[in-house]
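quick one: pyridoxal-5'-phosphate bound model?
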Amino acid sequence: MLNQRRIWMDGELRPFGEAKVHLLSQSFARGSAIFEVISVFAADQGAAVFRISDHLDRLSASASALMIRLPLSRAKIRAAVLKTVSANQVDFGLVKLIAYYSGFGLEVIPTDPKVSFAVAAFQFGRDLSLSKLGEDRFATVGISKWRKLDPATVPIFAKAAGNYLNPMLAKLEIRSRGFKTPILLDTKGSVAEGATESIFLVRNKKVLTPKLDNILPGITRLSILEICKRLGIPVQEQNLKLKDLLSCDEAFFSSTTCKVWPISRIEKRRLPAPGPVSARLKEYFDQILSGRIKEFRRWLTYLE
Ligand SMILES: Cc1ncc(COP(=O)(O)O)c(C=O)c1O
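yep, here:
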């Protein structure tokens, strides 16, 4: 099925198999591509892209951090996203945006300044396994021996391909120990995040999540914080330690792909999944995505 998809590359929709980059391109060799992953939902009024403006803001921040000059205006990127989603008839899936140095380069810095831009869109159940949505319904989690990249070494707030060696290693290690996915601590021993998810704990009915100091600024994380305020659920961004993971009442991950993903086990400790607070947040999130909550319709951009 994937070979029937079309990928937007530098201004035109091309067949899936023709969306190629040279083996010796600078971004392939050095991991300098920046990207975004955005979700599309079948809301009651039609297919809608979730929080596109926030994703484009984060893409700009990634570009600035890596000193990449995006080749398209924000309006043109937005149009390319909507066009690619429509062209591939996606109403429940993911869109991936990538900006990369496509030219040949053996040096560590790009010697050819050309930045290319691509957009791909995939439908759950057709192009992507539905299980990816929440992997399984619950996450079993191990604490990785790998620490989250230190913010003093690379801009960890940027979605840059090279940063993902870190969660890749953590996830491989944790899978080899029989868990689904990792939690990474930072280099000071504080809780950071999952492989590609933000983490939340619930203790005494209060929702806790790490501050932005040592993590990627997740757009779903931001949404959960706003939803908690709307529902009157006490919420706090704070430094969290291993002991907090081992003493919470509930825990869940959040991300574009999984939205709210309850954690049923952290190392040897079992947790209710979903616990009552996680279940309430998950249910409310689903309502927002279907377009039924008026004040959150601003998060949805319908296809023209
Ligand atoms: C390292 C990392 N943390 C957290 C997240 C969750 O971010 P978002 O909610 O914007 O998908 C991601 C998303 O892929 C990620 O890569």
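The helical segments are 26-30, 52-65, 74-87, 165-176, 219-231, 242-245, 276-289.
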